[in-house]
Amino acid sequence: MENTIAEETMVLIPKDKDQKRGGLRTMPLIIVNEAFERVASYGLMPNMIFYLMNNYRLEAANGSTILFLWSAMSNGLSIFGAFLSDSFMGRIILEPSCESFPAIIFTEFLLCWPCFEGMILLWLTAMIPQLQPPPCDRFTDTCSSATAGQLAMLFFSFGLISIGAGCIRPCSIAFDADQDNEENPNNESVLQSFFNWYNAATGLSTIIAFTVIVYIQDNLGWKVGLAVPAILMFFSALMFLVGSYQYIIGKTSSSLFTGFVQVVVAAFRNRKLNLSHSSIEQYYHSDDSELQLCTVDQVESLKALLGVIPIWTTGIMMHINLNQNSFATLQAVTMDRNILNFELPAGSLNVFLVLTLTIWLTFYDRILLPLLARFTGRPRGGLSPKVRIGIGLLVPVAARAMSAVVETIRRKTAMEEGLEDEPDGVVNMSVVWLLPPIILLGLAEAFNSIGQIEFYYSQFPKSMSTIAVALSLSEPRWLI
């Protein structure tokens, strides 16, 4: 589909034309808001498998499945949040900014409340002994499993966190992009750099989550380790409110979802209608035609959405590879984690994935891209979104091949040392063996994630920008 779709009539209508609003002074506030949310949310994930196994007596396979479904629900709900934003409330609500400061406080509170409440409930599961199974009997060595009520409280907290994350994540990057002046002739260049810096900033916040939060959980326990993310979620809302009077905001004029339904209904009702060459022009432009059940813009929006589905589904295999974090964490526990006289926490292993992603994005945007532009003679002479998506799909093949080799060596070493029946035994094998596959996955994500976002933005009209971000966030990982 042609990029000119983005120039058509938009559903999100600018509400504030004040040139003093928006711009570079508001973008950092939104990015910081997102960064705090990432630190709070992602800080829960690395060690959560140990929390489920040690505190709730769950098997490794069951715990990994629960965490996968939690992650899938968080990302899958981003599509719901995106449709809600672009169709009914607008990012003015999901990323609240109103002319009335009390309204801003209310809407921001309404948005962050599910995520914040979920983190509070999760923290309470560590604080209140009755919300966890009792300690194992030291004499009989028997352990009680978690009750249905205890698991219900745990899953309810996960669900609330997913609801909050599903509304915040797709709206944040799109709302930040709205702060850019559309009349700027260099808007495309600024937007592409913004995507890179946005991902680099959130990458750094993920590094903090995988190091600082994991360190707190390992050394200060779960009571403190679960309280810190809840506090950070509070600061996430606070940082957004700091610039509440400076944001460029928009309001919705129609529902995208309703428009999609109208297109399908119109196509079904008129499926047997015979049109002559003279009547086609009449029906296309006439406002009085019986065929005016939907607009051309609605048809083009639905075509754009259907057109990206093949590219979107390619993310299935990509995220099968990326959602194996729990297994790598369990592997790391059984290996020598001393690196340069420092014991690397098992939950911090994926920090190397994020470091690779961040370093590559910075290198690509500041060094490689200018060189490619000089070579090709184009202002943005880098790789096209489809090429980057393709590279991102090929690199995990090598990563998982390396993972299979490493696991074969680890198992063989464990059997040679007589540790096959000791799940808590430490194999005389450095955890560094796990890093090459993880680094390759970080490189794959760097290629794929930016390519996905730019591709969707190039195909969708402005009114569907939040949906574009939601598709890149959700992918079909929740279908696996």
TrEMBL record:
Compartments where located: Membrane
Family stated for the protein in its record: Belongs to the major facilitator superfamily. Proton-dependent oligopeptide transporter (POT/PTR) (TC 2.A.17) family.
Transmembrane segments: 35-53, 65-84, 104-124, 154-175, 195-217, 224-242, 342-364
Species lineage: Eukaryota, Viridiplantae, Streptophyta, Embryophyta, Tracheophyta
Primary location recorded for the protein, binned into one broad class: membrane
A GO molecular-function annotation: transmembrane transporter activity
InterPro entries, sorted: MFS_trans_sf, POT_fam
Gene3D superfamilies: MFS general substrate transporter like domains
SUPFAM superfamilies xrefs: MFS general substrate transporter
Protein name: Uncharacterized protein
Keywords: Membrane, Transmembrane, Transmembrane helix
Membrane topology classification: Multi-pass membrane protein
GO cellular component: membrane
Domain of life: Eukaryota
